[in-house]
Amino acid sequence: MRIGSTSDTDFGVRVHSSSGWSSSIDRAAIEDLFVFTDYSWREYAEAVRPLGDETLMKSAPGSGWPALRDALVHINWAYVRWLADPAGTSATEPEKISSWDELEDYRRRVRGRFREFIDSLSDDVLMSPREMNIDGEPMRYSPADIFVHVLLHEREHHGDLNTLLYQLGVEPLIVEYRFSLPDRALG
Predict the structure, then answer these.
(1) Domain extent at residue 67
(2) Would residue 106 count as lying in a domain?
(3) What are the distances in angstroms from CA 110 to CA 27, 66, 77, 83?
(4) Using 50, 70 and 90 to split pLDDT, how confident is the model at 44?
(5) pTM of the model
């Protein structure tokens, strides 16, 4: 069932079965999330890049992250951790980044691999659960589940980015899905 279903029982996002909850998110919904994360990255880039690489690297005590750079690298490293090896999570360390240009290059590469991977899968393979080694533990996920996990992981760190911006004296951003959509004003 696709997101947006009008079913009274499953709302098109999760379906309950005797084995638990299973994802029913489809390729179109994953693409929507991919576009949203592009939008949100652009919003943060517009706010952070003009502040210079010094701000990117500046210590932000009390934020939970050593610097803004560390949170941004972590967001992008998740694409490597979860998607570099279709059989399981990767132990690859995050890249060392010291400038916005390096960060943009890292993001372009990891998102490019995301795009190549999802484009290589048929809809059946995308939606079919398979065994994966998740930090040494065998688990069953469909590639769609992992793609959604990575995209939502990025979204979940927006609060961290805003805390870091606040700690650095920069106005936090309001990055919401609806703002990424085409103008829907009536009249």
Answers:
(1) 24-180
(2) yes
(3) 19, 23, 8, 9
(4) very high
(5) 0.83
